[in-house]
Amino acid sequence: xxxxxxxxxxxxxxxxxxxxxxxxxxxxxxxxxxxxxxxxxxxxxxxxxxxxxxxxxxxxxxxxxxxxxxxxxxxxxxxxxxxxxxxxxxxxxxxxxxxxxxxxxxxxxxxxxxxxxxxxxxxxxxxxxxxxxxxxxxxxxxxxxxxxxxxxxxxxxxxxxxxxxxxxxxxxxxxxxxxxxxxxxxxxxxxxxxxxxxxxxxxxxxxxxxxxxxxxxxxxxxxxxxxxxxxxxxxxxxxxxxxxxxxxxxxxxxxxxxxxxxxxxxxxxxxxxxxxxxxxxxxxxxxxxxxxxxxxxxxxxxxxxxxxxxxxxxxxxxxxxxxxxxxxxxxxxxxxxxxxxxxxxxxxxxxxxxxxxxxxxxxxxxxxxxxxxxxxxxxxxxxxxxxxxxxxxxxxxxxxxxxxxxxxxxxxxxxxxxxxxxxxxxxxxxxxxxxxxxxxxxxxxxxxxxxxxxxxxxxxxxxxxxxxxxxxxxxxxxxxxxxxxxxx
Length: 488
Known about the structure:
The chain has helices at residues 41-58, 63-79, 81-92, 96-116, 154-166, 180-192, 206-213, 228-239, 263-275, 295-308, 327-342, 393-400, 416-425, 458-462, and strands spanning 9-11, 14-16, 21-26, 31-37, 123-125, 131-139, 142-146, 169-173, 199-202, 219-225, 245-248, 253-257, 285-291, 346-349, 364-367, 384-390, 408-412, 430-433, 452-453, 466-474. By secondary structure, the protein is an alpha/beta fold. Strand 10 (219-225), helix 8 and strand 11 (245-248) form a beta-alpha-beta unit. The strands form five sheets. Strands 14-15-16-13-12-17-18 form a seven-stranded mixed beta sheet, with helices on both faces. It has 14 helices and 20 strands. The N and C termini lie far apart (66 Å). Helix content is 37%, strand content 21%. It folds into two domains: 9-249 and 447-470, Aldehyde Dehydrogenase, Chain A, domain 1 (3-Layer(aba) Sandwich); 253-433, Aldehyde Dehydrogenase, Chain A, domain 2 (3-Layer(aba) Sandwich). The protein is globular and about 80 Å long.
């Protein structure tokens, strides 16, 4: 397999190196695998100017021609899937099959948006003779986007796809811990002939880049995926210049398990999903509220499957879960486990970090966790699950909705009446029933309450990257005197 890529910034259609760099680590070995170029103020100024030039060209390019460039780039990414997945596993640690699936998922975002952007239709509003009212969609302008480390390719893909497909230009700041996915996207678009300046890729200190880019008048939309605390801060920055935001923020996903399902099958499925990406997913199922009639068998099946998860270097065959991102994640999870244990929670499996190098932590299952435990209120963002019994559907729904988060929620049931209640009463932007998948390219994805603003994906996702303009066209000058109460 190829080595880890030789990283560089991508500004105005040119690759650029910088004097300042940061090390990129393999979390499975804690060894340095690459050097990250750090963008300075001059690099950001150049990116803003390049994005402005690129936007003038790209907004005048037909949707079909834009789609052709996007699909050429996507075909290159699919052809390079092994190379991209290899780099993702090196920098992130996730098992190689999961990295391959992430590349495919990112490609699906590009393919969907390439088609959907050709359906950003306007409309003609019926009116009296001699006048036409038209509504049209136009690209908003330059987008400043910030993507997280947990999905190095698919997260930047989602933002780049929406921006470029709709006719915008974009400056994306990819995560410094996992930069290779975004670098490979830029490489594919460069090779596919994307006009210079439409896509610009920078790396560096997140707070410095965001505080400089967001207030700039060229920036017409801020798109961010990450924690609620950072999202609030960036929204405040954007509000000072009335710049709209697209925020996909944190979650603490509840799972309601009703007594009409097979507890063994549901428990095993839940544990396997909890292990995906080492639990470092904003939609990861975490708070399991299980009907007390099946609580014991469900918890036993969950714990058995969790204990069987094979942990190790994502490059090794058969590994199901790689390391977490860094020491900070391990320390945060350990603190949550110890707090819950001290308050009476039972540790069904896990809870102890293995010896040796790498940021590994086992899938840990806590049962009968009291509501005052920190983990009941703080998103663990790691392989940590909570299983609590409930006496009724009313209780389960109330506990699921008790937090300020509302990104994803899940349920297991076969009763139509229960499904109807869940659809109506659960406070989440995404509800999945009898499946633990929360998002695909074809549907909108986003949260309610403190979990974000706006939607990515689907028809709705494209609407954030355009502005709606109303045009009133009268065929002849109106010479009649003004009448009181006339339309404005």
